[in-house]
Amino acid sequence: MGGSNLMVEETLKLAYGEDLDLIKDKRIAAVQALSGTGACRLFADFQKRFSPDSHIYIPDPTCSNHHNIWRDANVPQRTFHYYHPDTKGLDFASLMDDVKNAPKGSFFLLHACAHNPTGVDPTEEQRKEMSYQFKVKGHFAFFDMAYQGFASGDPEKDVKSIRIFLEDGHLIGCSQS
Fold this sequence. Notes:
By secondary structure, the chain is of the alpha/beta class.
């Protein structure tokens, strides 16, 4: 069962915008899942089934359930740099080095907003640079969006990272809760 059709339609609009051609043309697959963790698990199983030799790159740090989800789906994990404890900010240079050095076509777990557990997010310009490099390398972005509207108080601002990737022509995955 895919859940409530109305719920799925409305959450797609919330995440991707009402005018996205993928929605208008019905070229997007979506299901209602039990929580963000359940949605992440559905994607991990999807990744294992349709790209069985792939890995997932997970930010260091991330919420602990991400490691359990991909482990239980038998998807090998690697980490990428994210947080710099000395500056208490984003370690963007190291993050980008990891993106550039990952094998072509790698899967990356990204937090759409309000990175858990740090609360540190890339700027819009940094997101654009990430999107560009993902395009160059043919990487696949899976966004875990747990706090849309709570990070900044503006649901549109909090979804900007996803919209940047979509505007750049990426196919993405998204867990929304």
